[in-house]
Write a structure and sequence with these properties.
Bound molecules: NADPH dihydro-nicotinamide-adenine-dinucleotide phosphate
Radius of gyration: 21 Å
Structural class: alpha/beta
Strand order of the largest sheet: 9-8-7-6-10-11-12
Strand content: 15-25%
Number of helices: 17
Helix content: 40-55%
Amino acid sequence: MSYTEEVYERVVAQNPGEPEFHQAVKEVLDSLEVVIERNEEEYRELSILERLVEPERIISFRVPWVDDKGVVQVNKGYRVQFNSAIGPYKGGLRFHPSVNQSILKFLGFEQIFKNSLTGLPIGGGKGGSNFDPKGKSDREVMAFCQSFMTELCKYIGADTDVPAGDIGVGAREIGYLYGQYKRIRNLSEGVLTGKGLSYGGSLIRTQATGYGVVYMLDEIMKAHGDSCEGKTAVVTGSGNVAIYAVEKITQLGAKVVAMNDSNGYIYDPNGINLDVVKDIKEVKRGRIKEYAQRVEGSVYTEGLGIWNIKCDIYLPCATQNELDLEGARILVANGCKYIVEGANMPTTLDATNYVMNNGVLFMPGKAANAGGVATSALEMAQNSMRLSWSAEEVDTRLHSIMKDIFAKVDDAAKRYDMEDNYVVGANIAGFEKVVDAMKAQGIV
Ligand code: NDP
């Protein structure tokens, strides 16, 4: 049995009931095989892989709060501090009923490599709660956030662990969380990113993940003599990442014809009117089906199946495992040429293998959506310096970080004779820096 297989079996045995975590570890270890074989003796001696798959710390806590009816509610809260070899833990907080330790461990594990790829000094972490902000009043969301932060504030800090938003955690939640942190710790510091502009936030942070996904797509296309101009795209989700991916890809000349939410999808052959989507999602916190009621010529379909819509470019920007083998086969059959992951692990392993074996250029989320965390690190830098950069300055830095990530991923794939295999390239490029830092710091 190879070293990577041994470690994978150990992960499965020691982390029962955590399928998402197993899946993320398997994907990374499989694609690192070529690097690990070359350095097996040294890595075994230092137990590099055994240490890499074990979080440095997991904090799990009770979050009691009172709803609008006066009833006491109790949720689970977590922070997974996975790896701090290259800097303070950094990664989002997710508030969604599906949140559990397995999902946060998969996200925290992926975050290590993603953060490494940005070239910035940030380690990997992730956290959240099974709290569902949907349908809650602002007061209920505030009560929850204050209770969550009352416990979390003991474990985070500008130089220790700097959470950000993720699914279900946007500007409103970050504001309430930050207010409570400051109140308890009496510190105005960059302990959270994604903050509002009036209290330390960075311009372009809201747009960063979606814009970064499209900057990455643009690099891939350029490297293959192609461009977005005149292409048809499908972008899944209709949250933060999806909205700004649509904005940027439209600016680059592609037409986005479909988006979705967890209830169903809209198809608009004339090209999605993003102002309407923003109004539904960012202002009214409504459902995507309202789009079809507001825009003539568009159609809403309840349920799954957005992949049935023919496109050249598919940007999955909703959630993990949203694209399975069946959907992947249909995309390929319909001529899709590019899949760039805006969400974290939205494509199942067999779907990933299928599209890569069938001529699709596929960029994994850990490289493609790294613009969000990179811009969070730019927010941390601005907070430390007590100044704010202009939107142009942040956007220029974001753009150059995404170009740099593409170059690293492309180079790593080529160095191991796997040109265009960006899954391997991203994992290797991210892994090399983390391992270097772990080796230098001894057995910790
Ligand atoms: P949001 O909460 O803003 O949006 C998520 C969107 O996905 C919503 O439209 C949601 O619909 C939809 N969705 C959720 N589950 C499903 C499903 N099963 N099928 C179809 N649609 C679904 O989250 P973000 O946009 O911030 O995050 C999206 C993804 O990007 C996540 O994987 C996240 O981890 C990743 N990411 C986010 C970053 C960021 O900066 N925000 C950075 C890097 C990665 P509904 O309203 O119905 O739930």
